[in-house]
Specification:
The complex is a heterodimer of chains A (about 450) and B (about 170). Chain A has about 450 residues and is mainly beta. Chain A folds into two domains: about 150 residues, TolB, N-terminal domain (Rossmann fold, 3-Layer(aba) Sandwich), CATH 3.40.50; about 270 residues, 6 Propeller (Neuraminidase), CATH 2.120.10. Helix content of chain A is about 10%, strand content about 40%. The longest helix of chain A has 20 residues. With about 170 residues, chain B is of the alpha+beta class. Chain B contains five helices and four strands. The termini of chain B are far apart. Classes of the chains: A mainly beta (about 450), B alpha+beta (about 170).
């Protein structure tokens, strides 16, 4: 497991420019229904020596890819550049960047000393000719260069949109290979953009639905290694796992952490009936949260930990319900046509993402927590299992294609419904869980 | 692949085809064959192969349902009779779903189906401690086309003879 120490501080040696980080004119308001992506330029970061030149080129490419990948920004090709940036501290020729209509400009410098890598960068509002926020410097090891690029992207995104970002984050998922009737599944983890895939289990037993802990250090998942589906918790850093002590001889699955990381909520099946239970991780004690003859599964906490949204077929078809986190009366929130499943509460608390099945098609959608303002973001033969980006702006999910050659792929989509794109993984992928921003 | 190993592989495929569920834990040889027949062969009524092929090891379900159809009840009655006559065997009933549905819901649905089959067998006198259940949800389809013809075969509960009470 990669271990990085990234120090973050304001570069005091940098040229000081008037700072208008919060009131600068360059601002992308994400709730205004953006149609036109904001044009930006990322000239290759300036290396301070031959050892840094490949890192400088690669880091600037990853920053550009992060920003472009949001669908909110459009990169201006270096072919159009008038200015070359050959010194990080030289004054920016704003007229040259205005002329090619670059509204935002990201400049940077890379220093490599042994295996130590330092990245400095600045974000410029080209049309006002001012720096957006302060110049910053990240230091780490050369092997962590992609993370430092993502940290630069996070800063650029946040300064321009005024919102939290999501690039320096990881996604746990199930790597899938082989045909549908002999599918091999392995637990895996990767950077949000599909880079640095690591496998955490082999394919000897079916594994399902990893779920990150709030701090990103542990994963809950379901495995058939005893023959029955059972819940395990895995320490991501040490790849060490432990079976959770749900009741013997039963199926337990669909686990999810509480926001404080101290307990989990999960499905337990007894005598063919599936209900929701909650386990205190310190004591290992479980308590029952639902007690109906219906199927209750796919629970997800509200960010404040006070409520749980889940799926139940108590009305006859699978629908979404919300109940207090300690159980009690549940309120149905889904009333549209079709069947609803796998609800996931947004990290901002305002929306619930879900899978919807209607008229032979599957959709990923979002609704407000009272069930109003339902919007379907995708449609295909089989879309399921949404997970939220740390800033609540993007949803990743599983798309399975039909037929004998059907294959599972991870996709992401903006909550506006725009920017649907596959996430490239070495094999097929399913059941993504998007972890928190890394420190 | 050389010819010899190809022939061996073909032999394997033939063997696996005889075991319709391809389950490595399913018995290849019966317990206590009566001697007049080849013990363990499908013609030996006390063999797991006979149970699979002649009695019928699986029942099918309607979309989203775990209710046993009259056809399913007939098959399960045969299973119950066989299990009552062959008390050495224990079984695991595997519940499955087709791919139309979320992974979590299908796991729970498969459990309902396996339990429906188990409850029927118990109601016909089979001891509950001989019958385990497990659900695979939509993880182990046997047919992989995405039309009802395949889906209908995937919505199943399969009774797999997993061991013998006498060891």
């Amino acid at each position: 497991m990669m271990k990085l120490l990234i120090s973050l501080f304001v570069g005091l040696t940098l040229m000081s420019a008037p700072v208008h980080a919060q009131s600068g004119p360059l601002r992308l308001e994400l709730d205004q229904g953006i149609i036109e992506p904001l044009p930006f330029a990322v000239p290759s970061f300036v290396p301070d020596g031959p050892a840094a030149s490949q890192y400088a080129a690669d880091i600037s490419r990853v920053v550009a890819a992060d920003l472009t990948g949001t669908g909110l920004f459009r990169e201006i090709s270096s072919d159009a550049f008038i200015s070359r940036v050959s010194s990080f501290d030289a004054p920016v020729q704003f007229a040259d960047w205005k002329a090619i209509n670059a509204e935002a400009l990201v400049t940077g410098a890379v220093n490599v000393s042994g295996n130590r890598l330092t990245v400095r960068f600045r974000v410029w509002d080209v049309f006002s000719g001012q720096e957006l926020g302060n110049g910053l410097q990240f230091a780490g090891t050369t092997e962590g260069w992609r993370r430092m690029a993502h940290k630069v992207s996070d800063q650029v995104y946040s300064r321009i949109t005024g919102e939290g970002a999501y690039f320096d984050s990881r996604v746990a998922f199930v790597s899938e290979s082989g045909p549908k009737d002999q599918r091999r599944k392995r637990l895996a983890i990767m950077d949000y953009d599909g880079a640095n895939v690591q496998y955490l289990t082999d394919s000897a037993a079916i594994v399902l639905a990893p779920r990150f802990s709030p701090n990103g250090e542990q994963l809950l998942y379901t495995s058939y290694e005893t023959g029955q589906p059972r819940i395990y918790v895995l320490d991501v850093g040490r790849v060490k796992r432990q079976e959770l002590n749900t009741q013997e001889g039963t199926m337990s699955f669909s686990p999810r952490f509480s926001p404080d990381g101290r307990s989990i909520v999960y499905s337990l099946t007894q005598g063919g009936n599936t209900d929701l239970w909650k386990m205190d991780l310190a004591s290992g004690q479980s308590v029952r949260l639902t007690n109906t003859p219906a199927i209750e599964t796919a629970p997800s906490y509200s960010p404040d930990g006070s409520r749980i949204v889940f799926e139940s077929d108590r009305s006859g078809t699978p629908q979404l319900y919300i109940m207090p986190a300690n159980g009690g009366e549940a309120t149905r929130i889904s009333f549209g046509q079709g069947r609803y499943g796998t609800p996931v509460w947004s990290p901002r608390g305002d929306l619930i993402a879900f899978t919807k099945q209607n008229k032979g098609r599957f959709h990923i959608g979002v609704m407000r927590t009272d069930g109003s303002e339902e919007r379907l973001l995708t449609a295909s033969f089989l879309d399921e299992g949404p997970t939220w980006s740390p800033n609540g702006r993007v949803i990743m999910f599983t798309r399975e294609t039909q037929g004998a050659s059907g294959r599972s792929t991870l996709y992401s989509v903006d909550i506006s419904g725009r920017n649907l794109r596959p996430v490239r993984t070495p094999d097929g992928g399913s059941d993504p869980s998007w972890g928190p921003l890394q420190n | 692949m050389n010819l010899l190993s190809k022939a061996a592989a073909l032999g394997m495929i033939a063997l696996m085809a005889a075991c319709t569920n391809n389950d490595p834990s399913a018995f290849g040889a019966g317990q206590g064959g009566n001697g007049a027949l080849v013990p363990g062969s499908p013609s030996d009524p006390r063999s797991p192969a006979y149970f699979q092929q002649t009695v019928g090891d699986r029942v099918l379900f309607e979309v989203d349902q775990s209710t046993l159809t009259p056809a399913a009840q007939t098959v399960l009655q045969g299973q119950a009779d066989w299990l009552l006559a062959n008390t050495d065997f224990i079984a695991t009933i595997e519940g499955h779903a087709d791919e139309q549905g979320t992974r979590e819901y299908n796991l729970a649905l498969g459990a309902r189906r396996a339990n429906a089959a188990r409850e029927f067998l118990i109601s016909r006198g089979v001891a509950g401690n001989r019958l385990e259940t497990v659900s695979y949800g939509k993880e182990r389809p046997i047919e992989i086309c995405s039309i009802e013809e395949c889906y209908s075969k995937n919505r199943r509960a399969v009774t797999v003879l997993t061991g013998s009470t006498t060891g």
